[in-house]
Amino acid sequence: MSNLFIAELLRFRAWALLALLAHLAVLGFFARMVDPLQQPLFVYQVVAAVYGLVGLLLGLYQMGGYRKPNTWLNLLHRPIPHIEVAQALAGAAMALLAIAVLLPLLLVIAAQSALTARVVDLRHWGLPIAAWAIACASYLAAACVMLAPRKSAVFPVVLLIVLMISDASGIWVLVLQAMVLAWLAALLACVFKPDLCAPPRRALGELLLALPMQFGIWMFLAALTLVYQTGWMLFGTHPLNSTPPAGGYVEASRADGADLLLAGLDLATHADAALWREQVRLSEVHGTQVQIEEFAARQQLTNPMPMEFDDDTRRTRYIFSHDDLRFHGVALADGSRDGVLGVGGDHAAFDLPPLPLGRSALATAHAVYAYDSETRQIHTRIALPPGETLAALPTPAGESMSVLSDQALYFYDARSLANAQDVLAPRVRVPLPGAIGSLDRVDLIELLDGHLLSLVYGRGGIDGPGDSYQQLLMVDGAGRIEPVARRELSPDFPLWLRHYDWWLSPAMHASRRVLANLFADPAPLRVRDPAPRPASMQLLAAALMLASLLAALWLSARQGLQGPRRWLWVAACGAVGLPALIALRLLHADRDAPVMEMAGDRALNLRATTCRCQRSGARCRSPRVLRRCAAVAALARPGARVMGCAKRRSRRRPRLLARRASAGCPRTSLAHCRAWRQPGPEVHGTCAVLDESGELAMTNRRCSP
Amino acid sequence: MPGVDSIKLLLAAALVFMSCAARGDPLAAIRAAQSSQPQAATLPREAFLGQSSLREVRLAPDGRQVAFLRELNGQRGLWLQPLDEPTPRRVLPKVDADSLLWSRDSQRLFLVSADQLSVFKVDGQTGSGRIARLGQRVLHEVVGIDPSQPAALLVLEQSLPGAAKPWSRLLRIDADGAQTVLHSDTLPLGDAALSADGSVLYLRRIEAERHTILRLRPGGTPIEVARCVQLERCQFIGVTGPDHALWMNSDRGSNLSALQRLGSDGESVVLHLDPRQEADLDRVVADPVSGEPLLAAYRGSVPQVHGLSAEATRNLAGLQARLPDRDLDIQVGHGADAFWLVAERDSRLPQPLWHVFDPHSGELRQILENDAGPQAPDPAQLARKWPITWTASDGMRLHGFLSLPPGRDPRSLPLVVSVHGGPWTASLPGYAAITQFLANRGYAVFEPNFRGSTGLGRDYLMAANGDFGNGRVQQDIVEGTRYVLDNGIGDRARVAIQGASFGGYAALQGVTFQPELYRVAIAGVPPTDFGWALRWAVTQSDLADQRGTPLATRFRLLSVDPEDDEVRARLAAQSPLANVELLRRPVVLYAGGRDERVAIRSVTHYAATLRSLGKSVQLHVEADGGHDLDEPLAREAWLFLLEQALHEHLDGPPPDPASPSLRAWLEQTRRPIPVRSEQAQLGALHATKVNSADCESAIRIVCRSPGQAAIYNWSRRRCNNQPTGTHSARNTSAGPVSLTGEA
User: Fold this and answer.
1) Over the stretch B124-161, which tens digit does the pLDDT of each residue have?
2) A-contacting residues of B 7-46, CB under 8 Å?
3) Which of A13, B35, B90, B144 is the most buried (most CB within 10 A)?
4) What is the ipTM for the molecules in this complex?
5) Domain residue ranges of chain A, discontinuous segments joined by +
6) Number of domains in chain B
């Protein structure tokens, strides 16, 4: 094993060193230009994608080479267990990735920590590990792609998607990556077997492959709506790509603020509605909306945005440190250290990492801070009540500044916000009538004594579930709130499409949410109004699950599944629905059919429909398959089983048949067949190799129908 | 140029005035004087938009050179004019300074901007540059030059009103940027006076409702020597003499502000008072080095300057002989060979003329050509502003100004009552662009200084007694209008009222409560409920951040306490907003979207209320505009709207066609903004000027409310005596015509 490991290292040593140098050069260049540890999330995502691509390419190249039949036979034909061979290859690849990915990152971070005044937190040391884990996971996924049965080959990649959709942060990202790595490693061990066409033999292996398969199939089916909607767009009637339907959510989300208020007022029966209509026409319409999707979490590996801001007057850049929860100044002129900033005059630590969201505005989930260049101090200006999360920074609303939280809209005195430095008390608090995750926009005008508000709900549900509506409120100067009107917004998309990803598989729909939230902190800004599922959609989902269950009963029997495995599959199809049924069909071939039965009845059945290839389970309806079956039947000996189909009809000897049958196969296949042409085993078709006991020793997927 | 002819005219007018006054026709002289003049040509609108390019023209203490700021191509530069050289030179091409101060040694210039202090060395030596930043969240005011230092400023700083721990301090900032705290206090300071040795002698401390004048003993212990109560003025001028007496511009204990001398024992002596017993002391000109008061200037109905010493009186007489009957703003130099810098102002001079006067030789020469532009109006074409006085129904003598287009019969002129803002300001005798514009278009313009106006004594100011609703103050305006009409000025059937801020409020009051007198109101940035506006101002306006007596206290002392329910209820009940049902006359409104003195929402609420009642209202909102018309295009728009409204409702001359930029501006500021759905359905928002036998002209804005089309008549409706502002369904097929009335 160690020899194989070392040989594999030596095989790629030049590439690894080259990648190391190139990676170091690129990182060094960027470190000179920018602070690589204070980049927005998008940059980290792009870089992670590059690392993932490196791992993918390595896995495809390495296992692509080994999976060729003769190479594969040579590789496995060693006096060590297959699992150790896999460990040697994968271990070598991961060691190479450590040289190419992990080491340069560690060097650059160490250099930044030792040689510059830039902030290097504990969390930053997790970045190289995460990068390496992504590269390794991609490598393992690619290895599994190359070695898994053809029809399920692509699905190991789904495990990488789990990393992409996850909302976990900090150490939990590393935990999740470790879990994915473990999963992929186990899957690799299961598919690292002589017969690359066969599904994993053990139940665990089948489970490791089947679960991502079902999730991947569900995502694929869900993505088919894009095809549908693209076609809709081509017709020019798509709500998002044409004049939106009147009275719908899309229209409301795009409407001019005054139009929107007037539309809401059309339904109002308030005594002052006529006056307000005129006032809307004359007044400036102010607005706000959710501006912040997520806040920085303590010790998270990446940043939602660069955790730094510049004091242009003093020529100082302040970089936030998650370690001590304070900003550290770096002089822009010479890069030297230039003080520490906390909250208030005594520079207390922040309670959470703040996002620098404006020239001098900072925000955490619970407070808004202002930086005063003159005094070099950060002051708390707005503090939300406990349990509330900031959703939008102070936004001008006439004489007031509006501030949106996940539970309420606040109005503050704009002049006090500009002039004073203390914590402001809100003038008015307006509880939100819906969930913040569904709030699309807030429009308002100033009245002589208060505000007229319009709140449109339905965000995230343009082509999805959930009710859309517009709520008009009047808030007077004393904070009294009066509902003025509620306008229901009609759905712009058909019902089946809005709930498509749910009725396709409620279980997978829920799984996606669970996977996204696994190890993640609660995200109050993403909380949405519960989406009621219409009875028709629930019926559709139930019908689909029942149909899948029934189909699984039939299919599993046809595939020859037995015992708990079969019933587990049937149960999975009943619970998951269509994705599980498709996974079952892709993972398992139809039950083998004794060729002798067909051969014995050759005169009658060869041209009929009873011929069935054992490997593929395909009925020999087409003349081409019919010929294969005929050939196999002609060559089969009593007691032997046919595992593949011949290329053409022939009555010649098996060896000759093999050569001829391999005409359409790679040369290696032919060589492989020859190599295994031993007195004992029978060779039927290009790839089927049977020993005397009838057990499958080797096969070639390409020749299976 | 007015000159000798003016003197003759004045003499003749005075003779006629005396004879007519004796016959009970006090304005006959003005009518006669104006009628006898040749008619003025109609000047382009642009002629009234020009503003002086020169700012902060300052004479050096040695009286040998002048520094000033000049705006060229939108860029402000610092210029110097040595008085022994023929032309000025630009020494700094770009500065952000708002004001200039010479150092006492005449070697440096202090440049004061909103956020920093800079110094410029006149002799070209090194050392120019920024010397101090002015705090962002503190109030600061440069109170003057430190008389004890060759080059240092005195700056007062204080915390913002409402600060948890209020503080204030007096700073000395020298030309090198060194700062010395001369005094710290927990209460705001309003003024300071230093001795020649640099010690602080007097401070004015602002307490709750009064200002206390403190005399600081050598150890720094303050002793109260005087109090200024009930908004009495106590403005420091300087300290002179061995007894360190304090010179003040003050109305302590008297009706009119005068030059007072406050001894260290608290005894004050009035040294000079308006000989006409009419106006407050406007300004005292002191020697820039010794601080000795030399001249006293008053700007009541008639501007006056008086000498305070024999030599100053003699020199002033020499100057006034060269510039008789002019409104003079004088700066003096120190020393035997120092010149005087004289700004000559007049109601017919759009920009002051700058002169250098040699007190010894009596030589006067003009300097500093103004860049007024090619369309600057010829003063000969402009109207003279006549001071008039009338007696209110309660017997109080009131003052105002009358401007008449030359060469016209005053009896047949349409009359525009132009009300000043504030209300605690005044119409002044100098040039007023709107007044001159209206006079040039053939309107008689009456500018009343109703009771409550400033500059005419405390009694005049306090006589309003908070009656700013449909009460005494409005009566002053109405009675003044009737007085003018009764005395042969203006056509009684063609009277309009216009103004900005409080003037706009008064205009709305006029058309609401006196519709038989006023045909139309043109109101800029108007409060629509004065009590509400005052309460709003206390918390929201920029006035609340000004140094001095807190705004709420000022209002209370002026008898308009916004927290007083009775006052609030009275002003609300008498407001235009509460009486919209009474409105029968058309209203043109103009407002700024970022107005810090009058809430835009109060204007839009008023306009919306009028619209919902079908009244005739036209509203323009400059989205980024403030309380003043800062942009030239905004000023032109105001003149255009004014002229158009007067044309339509007083049968005045039509306005010149709007330029494309003005037309675009008017479209942009017009409210309501057409909503998109309407635009889509109607193609565009139309405004059409309809001519018919019955309707001479009316601007109609075609609107469409969901489900029906209607034409709202936004302008006057004089069609068969139909009530103004009603709307009726019409065919909306009228062709698109711009708001300006131009196809």
Assistant:
1) 777 788 999 887 778 899 999 999 999 999 999 998 88
2) none
3) B144
4) 0.81
5) 2-201, 249-489, 595-703
6) 1
